[in-house]
Amino acid sequence: MKAMGFTSTAPVEESPLQLMEVPVPVPRPGHVLVKIAACGICLTDRHQIEGDLPQKYSPTIPGHQIIGRVAGIGEGASKFKVGDRVGIVWIYSACGTCAYCQRGNENLCDSARFTGWDVPGGYAEYVVVDQGFAYLIPDRFSDSQAAPLLCAGVIGYRSLRLSGVQPGQTIGLYGFGASAHIVLQVARYWGCRVYAFDRKESARKLAETLGADWTGSIEARPPRKLDAAITFAPSEDVVLWALEALDKGQRLVLNAIAMAARQEKPFSYPQQLWYEKEVKSVANVTRQDVLKFLPLAAEIPIMPEFREFPLQEANTALNLLKQGKIAGAAVLKVA
Predict the structure, then answer these.
(1) What is the pLDDT along the chain (335 residues), one digit of tens a residue?
(2) Alpha carbon separation from 62 to 131, 190, 311 (Å, rounded)
(3) Domains in the chain: how many in total?
(4) Which backbone phi and psi does 200 adopt, to 5 degrees?
(5) Do 7 and 132 belong together in one domain?
(6) How far apart are CA 156 and CA 123, in angstroms?
(7) What's the Cα-to-Cα distance from 214 to each of 157, 206, 229, 277, rounded to whole Å?
(8) ω into residue 222 within 30 of 0, thus cis?
(9) By residue range, what is the domain housing residue 203?
(10) Domain closes at, from 240, 266, 281
């Protein structure tokens, strides 16, 4: 099968992904083989490719927002039938027995493995997955519409829940890209006011189109204090701007797997963190997050903004995302 993979890490500007031929994987007991139709591109993919995350096998095939159809079934797998359309997310497996797994937090499992990082992912024509970590996709969405829901959407949903925002309250979204543009639609559906912050005018205009109540640059002072905030931009500077805008006793959620160190904004405890403000990180997602979010996405319905690229143009797509030239999400069209 064809796949886009990398053998060593490098900046995406150097086009490190190579089109290669690799064997079609064989589903083990309890697993299914999925013929991939589309795969969303995530910021985490770039972190892998550029070496911000350690490379765990070579060649590495990234991608964890996978939509496809079941093409083969391993021994003992009975959850799906051939032809079912399923999605595969970042969390690929967990031990199921540790204290974290037992309380439904397999996202914190020390033995958890991740799609495209620990095992081959969705920048390919086929992938295998444990049937317990695959999900039926609502008919309402096309393949390319559904792909961004599986990471940008579901981890944004988890962040929104963890923020504690309530109907009628105001939430700030810092860095308006693939995840934030989905979160805005959920927050509006819940009856929240949404303020969107981004340095790019094009991103702010997209937020306005989707119903943001106010938009401004990252460092802008919003018209009212925030009851909750989520940062999507991987920058410590942005975290400090968000804390400054947060009201007393409220929570900031950090939705980023890596953070660039502060360059512009100094930390001031009394100005940014005093008055019992909270900071909470988000680590991956759970299966329950996915199972709750997908029906909600169909009910709203969420309409992801996306731009499609052929599989072999993955380097181009990653480059454009890094330059901030794609509104919403980027999706690799595999079949």
Answers:
(1) 999 999 999 999 999 999 999 999 999 999 999 999 999 999 899 999 999 999 999 999 999 999 999 999 999 999 999 999 999 999 999 999 999 999 999 999 999 999 999 999 999 999 999 999 999 999 999 999 999 999 999 999 999 999 999 999 999 999 998 899 999 999 999 999 999 999 999 999 999 999 999 999 999 999 999 999 999 987 888 999 999 999 999 999 998 766 666 677 777 777 778 889 999 999 989 999 999 999 999 999 999 999 999 999 999 999 999 998 898 899 999 98
(2) 20, 34, 12
(3) 2
(4) -90, 130
(5) yes
(6) 22
(7) 21, 12, 14, 23
(8) no
(9) 153-281
(10) 281
CATH number at residue 157: 3.40.50.720
**Looking at residue 70, which CATH number applies to its domain?**
3.90.180.10
Residues 308 and 329 in one domain: yes
* Segment holding 318, helix H or strand E: helix 314-322
Place of tokens 């999706």: 331
- Cα angle 25-122-66, degrees, rounded to a multiple of 5: 115
